[in-house]
Each structure stands twice: as C-alpha cells, then as structure tokens.
Amino acid sequence: MGSSNEVKADVWFLLVTILAAVGWIFSKEAVLIMPPLLFICLRFLIAGVVLSIVGRHQIRALNWDQCQQAIKVGCVFAVGTCFWVLGLSSGVSISVGGFLVCLAVVIVPILDRIFFKQSVPIKTWFALPVAAIGLGFLTLKTGLMLETGQLLFLMASLFFAMFFILNVRAANHREVGGLDEIMDVSEKVPALSLTAITLLTVGVIAAGASFTMERETFTAVSLSADLVFWVLASALLTTAARFFIQTHAQSLSKSSHGVVIMVVEPIWTALLAAAWFGELLSGFDLLGCGLIFFSIIIYRWTFICGLFRRPLPPSDESVRH
Fold first, then answer.
1. What are the φ and ψ backbone dihedral angles of 278, each rounded to 5 degrees?
2. CA–CA separation, 207 vs 204, rounded Å?
3. 31-64 pLDDT, tens per residue?
4. How far is CA 35 from its chain centroid?
5. How far is CA 160 from the centre of its chain?
6. Helix, strand, coil percentages for the chain (3-state, nearest 5)
7. pTM score of the predicted model
8. If you placed Cys at 107, which of 24, 55, 161, 320 could pair as Cys (CB 3.0 to 4.6 Å)?
9. What is the mean pLDDT of residues 190-218?
C-alpha cells in the first residue's frame, strides 16, 4: 500500500511540474493584455478564495499565531511573485527565466545558513560555481551588464528561496533561533490552510502594489473574453489546482520525491515556450541553462542516488536481535 501511494505521489508531482510550466505560458499571455501586478492580484486572490473554501474547516480551527505565520510566509512569497511577474513582462525569454528562477534550489542552503545558522552541505559549494558559470553564459553575452528582466528573475529566485525556507518551517515547526523569533514558530500550520492564506496574502499585497504603480494603466484595460480566460485559467488551473494537487501529493508520500521531480519544471517551461511562442535559445543560452540545471542535479545528487538504491535485506544478526 505504501509503495502504491509513492507511485501515485510521483504521478501527481509530475503533473504539478507540468501545471507550473503551463502557468508561465498562461501568465505571459495575460501580461500581454493587462498590467502584470493587477494580474497577480486577481490570479492569487481568486486562487486563495477557492482554496479557502476547500479548506474552510481547517482555517477556522487556526489560532492567531498560526495565521500570523502564514501571513508572514505570504509576504515573502508576494515580493518574490511581484519580481517574477515584472520579469515575465520585461521581454526576457521564458526559457531563460525558468532556469534563473530555479536557482532558488541552490540558494536555499546559503540563506538557511545566514538566517538560521544551519550547516551548508558540502555539495552546495560544488553546485554554486557551476550555477555561477551558467548564469554568466546567460547574462554576460553583451558585457558585464545584467538585463533588467534577468535581474528581476534573480531577485524573484532569492525571495522564492526564502519563501521555501519559511514555508517549510511554518508547516513543520522547527525552532532553531534566528528568524524563528520573527516568524514566532510556535505551532505547525496545516498545509492547505497555510497555502490558502499565503495565496490570499500575495493577492492583497499585489493589489496594493498595482494600485500604487499601475493606477494610470487601469483605464487602458478593457474587459475581454481573452482577459477573463487567461486570468481564470491561471487562477484555477495553474494556481489553485496546482497547489491543491501538490498538497495532496505530499500527503501520500513520506519522502521528498517531489523536490527532485519538480526540478524538471524549467525543462517543461522551455519546451512549452518553444512550442507556444516559438522561442529559440542561442548557443550561449542553451549552455547557460544546461549548467544551471546541472548545478541543481549536483545539489540533489545524493538524494537522487538514494531513490534508486535498494534497501539491504536485514542480516541474520539483526533479525536475532
């Protein structure tokens, strides 16, 4: 029964990576016809409301400390998401953006060390130089200058890495000092409730940012069937459904299979961008993306090997004991 659940979880996690990649395409289509921050506001508010309805009983059972934890996680995620959508609307290749954002996987242990005094795995120091070289191939083709969109994606990657750390801590309740004093990690927050409140927080913060920065463009937005479709598809399919499926998959698996499987998200993103928008990567872009992907594999190598290592049968000595 356990192995059956693991297989189901792997299938669900694979679907999550596809939905995440589709989310890039839907979001790109949306920001072509409406202000990007307004789009994020609508997308996450709708998704948050849907998940709040699904998890209403869980949310009602939360105490104020748990709500605060979820809101603080949402604030960090909101900043990263705003950087992400601004990068998406900047004109930088979606394929390149996907790999830049995936650098968050390698950044996580560094931030965990800085803010939570956690030890940095040795493999991180092997992965970082490879990621840096890959980043160089992507961003330094025209000299020592980052494009605005590339910088926005890198900032998004940084905040997504911090979001991942704080999200895991809120969901798993680990008190180790440092930023835990700011997070006030006192009780575990159920995954569905944490996700719903996080998404709602993103929507509210994006609404404030949109009202401040995009107010002049509101009048230029005309309601159309295309606009409604892309917003609803992004909110319901690639946000609410994606996070709900991810939560369900996590409940089926006791391991971190999903972390490894979801590494393929930038591959799906690049393939969909090529098929949908006809994006073509230069030789330097391909090399840079490949190196960044390789750095992620280096960082996750020990776990990947563990997935294929069969457990040894118990020895006669251990059986006797």
1. 70, 30
2. 5
3. 999 999 999 999 999 999 999 999 999 999 999 9
4. 22
5. 6
6. 80, 0, 20
7. 0.84
8. 161
9. 91
